[in-house]
Amino acid sequence: MSEAALLTDAPPAQRILELLPDPVLLVRAGAAGGPEIAYGNQAARTLFRIELTGAPLGAALRQPQVLEAIEEALATEAAVEVAFESIGVQPRFWRAFVRPLGEGEGDGRDLVLMLRDETDARRTERMRADFLANASHELRTPLASLAGFVETLRTHARDDKDARERFLGIMAEQAGRMARLIDDLLSLSRIELNEHIAPEGTVDLAKATQDVADAIRPLTADRGVAVVLETGPGPFSVTGDRDQLVQVIQNLVENAVKYSAVGTTVRVKLFAAESLEAARAPSREGAVALSLLSPDAASSQSYVTLRVADAGRGIARQHLPRLSERFYRVEGQRSGGTGLGLAIVKHIINRHRGGILVESAEGQGSTFSIYLPAV
Ligand SMILES: Nc1ncnc2c1ncn2[C@@H]1O[C@H](COP(=O)(O)OP(=O)(O)OP(=O)(O)O)[C@@H](O)[C@H]1O
Ligand SMILES: [Mg+2]
């Protein structure tokens, strides 16, 4: 039967089989040259690049584990399951299910071979394990320091008033760091939980940015960095969750201030009603630009863009793609941060169907831009 006929004239059960997303093969044993493929559904034919029938199984499928599983199923008449890895440019993880079907046509015996691609599940599992390991490590460092000072206060520093004061100060700082880390982790998991639910409110980004600039004044004064807000003609309204967008702006402005040198200026600019092309276009000459997040082209006609430009030390090219990974920090920058800020920014902007662009030139500074669908 031709491929087209399989989809129109075949019995319903076979048409369903044909359309299954997972590869399914009917394997016939008994022929002299080893098992043959008696049928492969569309997914199987695409995967193994085979014709409809008659191909020797060994030519299409080279994984010895799977061939052995088939031998075993034929010998024992029992179902066999095996996991294997396909080698290629990008290795993929598969699970094969082999089920004997009993006597087939002629004197051959039939079995079904079903394959399931488990690569994504594996990757997610891996990411969860890595995340847990990183989070534990980040919490253990301040905890170990706290435990160490408790011990010192109990023993050597017991009667030393000055040392006691100093150590208690450090302990308070470490406890604060742990609290911040836990707040950020909780915030991240809350954002992830509702990431698929589109936000409903309307937010004036100019107002939100002004509020952040006002709130951050003590930090900027501390560091000797000026924050200048430059807004052209609006409107700057976007569909969004105000608290989350404030969190985004706060993270970006805080980073710009934190990683800038004394006496420099951070410029925050807003642009209304930009096309997607304009919103994602680089704005900084001589810098390397990288998109950390891109929206679906169909998500909006018009975007509001916020650009936070600093004159700090900049970020080397090789770090740019990893900035929004959880806990990623550029080495040598002792910020005391948790490395979760940009991960949170990315999840929030993704929920808002927006995009993020980073541009940086080492020694000259960085610009982080976010753009959001206009109301
Ligand atoms: N404007 C910037 N200039 C230079 N480096 C930056 C800038 N923004 C971010 N980085 C680098 O990217 C890293 C990740 O930033 P992120 O905001 O995710 O974490 P953090 O600032 O270290 O901690 P947190 O924001 O969780 O307090 C920072 O540690 C820093 O190395
Ligand atoms: Mg940060």
Structure description:
This protein has three domains: 3-117, PAS domain (Beta-Lactamase, 2-Layer Sandwich), CATH 3.30.450; 121-193, Orthogonal Bundle (Helix Hairpins), CATH 1.10.287; 202-373, Histidine kinase-like ATPase, C-terminal domain (Heat Shock Protein 90, 2-Layer Sandwich). The chain has twelve helices and 13 strands. The protein has helices at residues 3-8, 12-19, 42-48, 57-60, 64-76, 119-154, 161-193, 205-215, 217-223, 242-258, 276-280, 341-351, and strands at residues 24-28, 36-40, 80-86, 92-103, 109-117, 202-204, 226-231, 237-239, 265-274, 288-293, 303-309, 355-361, 365-373. The strands form three sheets. A six-stranded mixed β-sheet has the order 7-9-11-13-12-10. A five-stranded antiparallel β-sheet has the order 2-1-5-4-3, with helices on both faces. The chain has a two-stranded antiparallel ribbon with strand order 6-8. Helix 6 (119-154) packs antiparallel against helix 7 (161-193) and helix 8 crosses helix 10 (242-258). The two termini are 54 Å apart. The chain binds adenosine-5'-triphosphate (ATP) and magnesium ion.
